[in-house]
Design brief:
Largest sheet of chain B: 2 strands, antiparallel
Structural class of chain B: mainly alpha
Distance between the termini of chain B: 44 Å
Number of helices of chain A: 14
Number of strands of chain A: 16
CATH superfamily of the largest domain in chain A: Response regulator
Number of domains of chain B: 1
Order of helices and strands of chain B: HHHHEEHHHHHHH
Strand content of chain A: 15-25%
Distance between the termini of chain A: 55 Å
Helix content of chain A: 40-55%
CATH topology of chain B: ABC transporter involved in vitamin B12 uptake, BtuC
Radius of gyration of chain B: 19 Å
Oligomer: heterodimer
Shape of chain B: globular
CATH class of chain B: Mainly Alpha
Largest interface: A-B, 34 and 39 residues
Chain lengths: ~400, ~290
Amino acid sequence: MKTTLLAALLLALPVAAQQLSGDKVKVGVLTDMNGVYSALAGPGSVKAAEMAAAAFMKKHPEYAGKVEVTGVDHQNKPDVATNKALEMIEREGVDAIFDTPNSGCALAVAGVVKTRNALFIDVGAGTTDLTNDQCNVHTYHYAYDNYMLANGTGTAVTKRGGKTWFIIYPKYKFGQNLDAQMRKAVETSGGKMVAPSEATPFPNTDFSSYLLKAQSLKPQVFGTMQAGNDLVNVVKQYNEFALKKGGIGLAIGLLFDTDVDALGQDAFSGAVVTLPWFWNLDAQSKAWSADFEKAFGKKPSWVHGGVYSAVTTYLEAVARAKTDNADKVRAALDGYQFSDFFARNASIRPQDHRVILDVLQVEVKPKSQAKEERDYFTVIGKTPAAQAFTPLSESTCQMGK
Amino acid sequence: MGRLLVIQIFNGLVNGAFYALLSLGLAVIFGMLRIVNFAHGAMYMLGAFTAYSLGERFGLGFWPSLFIAPVLLGLFGVLIERTMLRRLYNLAPAYNLLLTFGLTLVIQDGVRLFYGISGAPYSGPPQLAGVTNLGFVVFPTYRLFVIAVSLAVCGLTFYLIDRTRLGAVVRACTENPTVTRSFGVDVSLWVTAVFGFGTALAGLAGVLAAPIYSVDPLMGSELIITTFAVVVIGGMGSILGSIVTGFLVGVLVAIGSALYPPIANTLVFILMAGVLLVRPTGLFGLPEGGR
């Protein structure tokens, strides 16, 4: 009798080996489902997370049926983001929150996970505060940030011969941050500003006065730190005022695939921008993108690729830690080095939770050179992971201290 | 500084061209129907998307769209007036507000479902691509065209309403519907026609805006707030007031934002508050009793 009991206990052991709260790993995607970021993140991010969960469960049969994905709308309001994050963690038992575009919302979620048994891995937001002043042990920043964008583009464009610059930026934190980083990158690479950067109102539709100023300053590069619809307006009017014909190139702070969709790629052709990834980067990426398109009906934005990669990295850490306990998964994530279709030569810095990876400088190609639908970018340079992000020596993150 | 000022006046005239067209539409509708049409911004946005769809589905370029889109929007306006607004004339004005505001949300979300949130590409007519050298500044030719079209349409509308027999009928319907009806005029028909005309103007503004501004489902919601301020400054329902104020506000805001950029988005509301303090009925408005 005793031996059978023992045998039964031994048999039961492998199952008990993973300690999952509620016997499930719950992945939450807190994103903008209907607003301005819903095309570049939104439902596509939820689909990407579901795909990552399915692939993980296939690879680790012991987790079959144990990973669940839930998508929640934050409506681009930080207070809603706070409430939803709380609800997800405390009521639904979500173990990790992903995506969360909109810097205000991202910082709100970081504040929530700080003191709770949950992790937050942001993909869609740009603010460097997530890994600096407002960093915390439960928050990670994946894919990109403002430093990486500005540093990459500023350096690459200046080194290619764009020595004189004029920059405009939207007057809110994201824009000011991006402008400061961009100027620094340009000046360190030997370029100079022909005039002080100009702050534009946000949101704004008419940029003609700034473009006319650029026309008279004649810099080699016109830098725009606007994002989303403001960026579309700037670029539309940049073409209208025929700045390119006047020899004034275009450098963009933050560009999503959806911006190019909105304006057509010819309007952007020749513009230089920094990206972590794009859907048809290489064979591996194309294969993943084909799967995504089959499941979602549209080609992935680079945020969608990032969410898939982030969820996979998280779930693999859960598998290594054999638990979904936030602090134990954190220990499995910190310092981890990996490469996948999205993140190349990536590692997770334990000091500030910045996930560093190789980033690309790309030029938008004209439609005539596009080989297929949404074939937008040509790679013109690469920044290795170690140089692409804020150096640790400059980080103001006090997490470990 | 002098040169910059002249440049900003031109920029202001372009913005003013849109303000004038939109506030003119609002003004004729308010004058006739006593309705503050919150859906006006959505009509403007629909104008731009109609032009885009005409190009995408039927291969129609800018020029045919410039005429077809406003007509389609006008018909849409007629449909809305006949099927919805009409039922609310005997109720408190708040119901009209609710209806037109609700329509805005429905239209915006409908367009978003159909075209996506990030908007659609649209290019202007090739004949007007490029820039014109005005001597003191190189200005996009298309923008000069926008100013010209807006001035022509506004002028024509003013002439029609103020100087012709047709306008006299419209004004009569506005001022005293009961008496006008007793003269055998079908007032309700005119009400429908005027609402359709107002939305057609918004549609025209939308088509004109498509080549310069981002064509996205929310493009009207920003602009409409400024336009309401313009209407209030000009005097609710005043045709001439809305036209003059439209251009005036465009230019003043452009100059103001050149002198002190942070004020750009607020200046129009400061103007509105100032005007309301001095002349509560607006620059061109008559006191309600004097109508």
